[in-house]
Structures are given as structure tokens and as C-alpha cells.
Amino acid sequence: ELGDYRSIRTEMNVPPTGPADVEAALEALRQRHSSTEPSDAAQAEDGAIAVVEATPLPANESDVAPEAAPASVPPPALPQELSIEVGGADTLPQFSEALRGMRPDEERDLEVAYPADYPNAGLAGQTRKYHLKLKGIQKKTVPDLTDDFVKHATGADTVEELRRRIGENLTAERQHQARHQAEEAIVDQLLRQSPFPVPESLVDKQVEAKIERNLRGLADQGLDPRKLKLDWAKLRKRHEDSARREVRAALLLEKIADKENIAATPEAVEAEVQRAAEELQQPVDALRARLRDNGVLDRIENRIRQESVLEFLVRNATGTVAGSVEGAATQ
Questions:
Q1: Are the C-beta atoms of 81 and 135 separated by less than 8 Å?
Q2: CA angle, residues 212, 217, 218, in degrees to nearest 5
Q3: Which residue, among 185, 192, 186, 183, has the nearest Cα to 2 in the 3D structure?
Q4: Residue 229 has what pLDDT?
Q5: What is the pLDDT, as a whole number, of residue 74?
Q6: HEC string for the chain
Q7: Is the dihedral of CA 283, 284, 290, 296 positive or negative?
Q8: Are strands 328-330 and 127-141 parallel, antiparallel or unpaired?
Q9: How far is CA 70 from the centre of its chain?
Q10: pLDDT at 166
Q11: Which one in 120, 150, 173, 324 has a CA-CA gap of 20 to 30 Å to 6?
Q12: Which residues in the chain come in under a pLDDT of 50?
């Protein structure tokens, strides 16, 4: 049974996009298109690119204790050649402090405490030691922000056009994120309003679909899932809770669609088919027939209907009652 879903309220806060956000994006663009060349600097200073040979060291002496059995001693780690911007915004402070003032061929040991939110999950929250050898110093040249540069880098005709485009994209991205957060908050409240068990067969189908998407992602990266030692039972277990939530949410949204008489319009479905035909470079009529035969057309219609219900709920929950929903019709 549905709860009082029309009483659900939430906020959709979209952070404003200001000039500073646009300028930061422009600076990031300049940095991505920077170039390096050998420097005659005597030592590494802020702004320089230090080319270092970094060799991981054992965390402590007990890791390579003499009494350890030979089979238990790990092979020595191989050095890596890294290019590190001294004092750079993306450089960990410990690396900058160790490299600052180093001269070519100078060597130093370094201990790094990686933050818990470090992007590399294998290093996040870890403390590692390295032996550094400075191989050389390079200087970075950042291109000027000119019309010629932005045209070459982005296709925009002028810097001002690019500024406008970046502002629009940032605003759209923040609106999308805020909308997604609002949808999640609404679905959470829906699920709390209407607790009910779902058929495990539907949960199993959803788990299989999630695993299949993961495997396709691995294949797209050039990895053969058949050659990976995957624990299928553990993989299924990891997806069960989210799959059960998704099934319950889909059933609730379907029931709301029935109650509110929301349906996908033929025009919205046809627009999806047209987009797919353009992307796949296939005739629209042939693709439409194939999608209809293999059931994909029904899935497209169901997805549009579900998105339309969420649009209705978001408008209602944020204070704007929907008179009509884009891509949907009320019957």
C-alpha cells in the first residue's frame, strides 16, 4: 500500500556558479595543456617539475628481519620514475617538503601519510616510506588564455564564449546533482512510508543485471572477466541490498504512476529511438523494429515512465506541483 507520497517534502539546493568557479575551470584547462622542458635550475623549487626515481621501502625493519624465512621475505620493490610538481595543488605536502631544495642526483628518504580520502584506494589512510633520487628538474610552461588557445583546445571561438559555456555547463551539472540528491531523498522517504517484502526472484534478476553491467565495464577496459578470479558468491552478496532497494523503489514508482495516470508519451519514446539510431548510425525503422522484437522498446517506455514519476514527485516535494511532466502524459 502506498503511503501519503504527496506529503513528502525535500529541498533542491543548487549551489550558485560564480566567476571564481569559471576562472578555476579555465585555469585547470591551461594546466592540462601545459608543457615541460629541461630546466637549468640548480635545485628543485616551488613550481618546478621534479623527475624522481621513487623506490618503496619497508614500513619498518621487522618487515625484513634477518631471522625471517627466505620464502616469507617479499622481493624488493622496483623503483618508479615520477614527475612531481613541487608545491603543486595536487602534490601531497610531504613530497613537496622532501623535494624542495634537492639537487640533481641527490637522494633522500621520505615517509608519507596518505589522507583517508586519497583518490587511490590502495594508498588511502596508509603510511608509506620511499627512497627518492632526483633525476632531473624541468620547468612547466602554461599557455596564455587567448582566443587562439581556447579555439585550439576547446573549439570555442573566443575566451568570453568559453567562459559562458563553462558557466552554463557548471550550472547544469550542479542542477543535475541537486536533482539526483532530491530524488534519492524522496525515494528514501517513499521506502520508509511503505515497507513491504519483494519477491526474491526480482531481487535475483536485479543482482544479475548489476553484475552484468560490471562485467561489461571490465570488458570495455580491455579486461577478460573469465580470466579474473572472481568470488561470485561474494559479488552477488555485495549487490543484494542495493538491488532489493532498487526493486522496491521501482514497484512503488510504478504504483504511483498508475494512481497518477502518468505514462510515457509516444513522442518521448520515439525521441529515444531517434537518438539511439543516430549514435549507432542505423536506419530508424530497422532499429525500432529490432528494439520492439527484443523487448527493449518496452524497457525504454518503462524507464521514461519512471523518470516522469520522479519528476512529478520532485516538483511536488519541492513546492511546485506539476501540471504536466516532460516526456509523460496524464491520462
A1: yes
A2: 100
A3: 192
A4: 77
A5: 47
A6: CCCCHHHCCCCCCCCCCCHHHHHHHHHHHHHHCCEEEECCCCCCCCCCEEEEEEEEECCCHHHHCCCCCHHHCCCCCCCEEEEEECCCCCCCHHHHHHHCCCCCCCEEEEEEECCCCCCCCCCCCCEEEEEEEEEEEEEEECCCCCHHHHHHHHCCCCHHHHHHHHHHHHHHHHHHHHHHHHHHHHHHHHHHHCCCCCCHHHHHHHHHHHHHHHHHHHHHCCCCHHHCCCCHHHHHHHHHHHHHHHHHHHHHHHHHHHHHCEEECHHHHHHHHHHHHHHHCCCHHHHHHHHHHCCHHHHHHHHHHHHHHHHHHHHHHCCCCCCCCCCEEEC
A7: positive
A8: unpaired
A9: 43
A10: 97
A11: 173
A12: 61-74, 322-326, 330-331
Cα–Cα distance for residue pair 267/320, rounded to 1 Å:
25
- Summarize pLDDT for 241-285 with one digit per residue, the tens: 999 999 999 999 999 999 999 999 999 999 999 999 999 999 999
Burial of 328 (0-12, 13-18, 19+ CB in 10 A): buried
Q: What is the pLDDT of residue 122?
A: 78
Q: What are phi and psi of 262, to 5 degrees?
A: -100, 130
Residue recorded with cell 581556447? 150
Determine the longest span between alpha carbons in the chain, in angstroms.
80
Q: How many residues does the chain have?
A: 331
Q: CB-hemisphere CA count at 13 Å for 61?
A: 2
How far apart, in whole angstroms, are the C-alpha atoms of residue 93 and residue 274? Answer: 51
Rounded Cα–Cα distance for residues 17 and 154 (Å): 20
18: left (phi over 0), alpha (psi -120 to 50) or beta: beta
Q: In sequence order, what are the residues at sequence separation of 6 or more whose Cβ sits closer than 8 angstroms to the Cβ of residue 187?
A: 249, 252
On whether the CB atoms of residues 239 and 309 are closer than 8 A, the answer is no
